[in-house]
Amino acid sequence: MAAASEVDNAAVLSDLAKHDSRAFPVDEKVSSEGTRTQALDEVEDDQETPTEYNLATMRRVSDAIPWNAYLIAIVEMAERFSYYGSLVVFTNFIQQPLPPGSRTGAGNAHGAAAQSGALDMGQRASTGLSTFFTFWCYITPLFGAYIADSKWGRFKTIKVSIYFSLVGHIVLIVAAIPGVIGRKSAIAPFIVGIILIGIGTGGFKANISPLVAEQYRPAKPFFRTTKSGERVIVDPALTISRIYMYFYMFINIGALVGQITMVYAEKYIGFWLSFTLPTIIYLISPLVLYLGRNRYTRSPPNGSVLASSLRIFRYAARGKWHVNPVRTWKNFNTPDFWDGAKPSRVKGEKPIWMTFDDLWVEEVRRGFKACSVFCWYPLFWLTYTQIYNNLTSQAATTNTHGLPNDVLTNIDPLALMVLIPLSDRVIYPGLRRAGIKFTALKKITAGFFTGAMAMIAAAVVQHYIYKTNPCHYSAATCKDDQDHALTSPLTVWIQTPSYILIAISEILASITGLEYAYTKAPKNMRSLVMSAFLFTSAVSAAFAQAFVALAADPLLVWNYGSMAVIAAVGGTAFWFSVRNIDGQEDKLNRIAEGRYDARSTDEK
């Protein structure tokens, strides 16, 4: 089969060469610097447009990341510090009781090896409320995207959203101050605080990701000669991918520092400090945003295109609905589904609202295609969200060696800070040199299966916790006669494989999802498509509520096992649903350049 494939590829390249008068032989020299932009000491950018033959045969590299993008990444880093720095202590704040004699919730304030806590509402309540918070934070981006696209633009929407989040953080501090913490009434300001933070997060997250990628202006591939003399193609799609990888690394720098600092503040000082420090750090966001206001590339609001996009979809779907849902699905996935909505294909008088051209229909097609890819993401996020509730609770039932039980969550961002540069500098360039096309959709599929492996590891750990805990299947509530918690002798570090596997799955699925949402969305739909991607986390949080019943002893092995099966089934279903468009990356990207093949982009 491999030989046949090589013959087919050779035939395709030969055919391209015959029909391409501008094709030229490929320089066999390969720069030792890989795709690092430092190796691309520009002689001068060649603005000649690469041909099909060039794209199929020449090495592609990414461009340098503009400094404006780093400034926006700093804004995101401060916001994520505040978000994750607060979120990481939610589980203990809600689940655990106030330690004896404590007025701040600190477990180790006076040298007593007690567990930090405040509200004493149990694991199910902590899982439910933290899941609600995730749901709320990722459903509000739909509103944030609408406001940005139709009214304020991305920059102003981000500014206003920051103010909402700051007020929410201040209200959280009120819930944790001595005199309020530990009382039943403390739940009221806590819930008000997370609702306000969710509103701010929605407007922020829907727009910060498109804004950072917009700082890179080139939309079409172009030639460049490296210092070693090799002529390569600078691919904007690879550059956007690189921007999002480092953008995600900044996210995790903020998350890592925030989480480590806050869990120790919680354990040794109290929850009021765990909620105050993120609020102070968050003030960096409006400051950097203001200082760089004249440097950023900004897109003005062009009006919401949701209504017109849905109208195009409805027009294209005429006559394709059927009482049999399977038949409807097949009709909607025919290669010419969208062609009926193109103005050039309309016979007779066109509808009054049809003021666009065929290219706009292709862009809408691409936006819907991106959203259809995201339909499977809720199953992936089920594995990721275990970090901030059930895995944190699991750590409390092991021997933490005096560490806060929620400090292990930092293995995830720490692993990402190592693995992201490794992927950018070594793994992905190495795969491209080897001729392996590790496309966006293949990365996402691999991310599902890596997430499933993380859950298998968590299930195995939970099994041995039950086996070695003095109370066996009541590990979370096991106490001695003096009301001191009894834990498994297993070290908390056995959770490490789960966190590292989740980090790998994030690189493959989460970062690639950000990239896909941006590169496949029309320019005036980027906030909308990005919010659709973020909305999958909200759907996942809603799904997770169905598993809250499993989020307690003695059912936690079933909880993690269920997540593993769901992620594996989701990854398999995802690949079978997108495999037909996996080889059309260049075609879809050319629509962003304002040009497309007149034939359907769904053609095989």
Automatic annotation (TrEMBL):
Membrane topology: Multi-pass membrane protein
Main localization of the protein described in the UniProt heading: membrane
Membrane spanning stretches: 129-148, 160-181, 187-208, 246-265, 271-291, 446-465, 499-518, 530-552, 558-578
Subcellular locations according to the entry: Membrane
SUPFAM superfamilies, alphabetized: MFS general substrate transporter (SSF103473)
PROSITE patterns recorded: PTR2_2
Keywords in alphabetical order: Membrane, Transmembrane, Transmembrane helix, Transport
Alphabetized InterPro entries for the sequence: MFS_trans_sf, POT_fam, PTR2_symporter_CS
A Pfam family matched in the record: PTR2
Listed GO CC annotations: plasma membrane
Span list, region Disordered: 23-50
GO molecular function, one term: dipeptide transmembrane transporter activity
Annotated family: Belongs to the major facilitator superfamily. Proton-dependent oligopeptide transporter (POT/PTR) (TC 2.A.17) family.
PANTHER family: OLIGOPEPTIDE TRANSPORTER-RELATED (PTHR11654)
Name of protein: PTR2-domain-containing protein
Organism (species): Pterulicium gracile
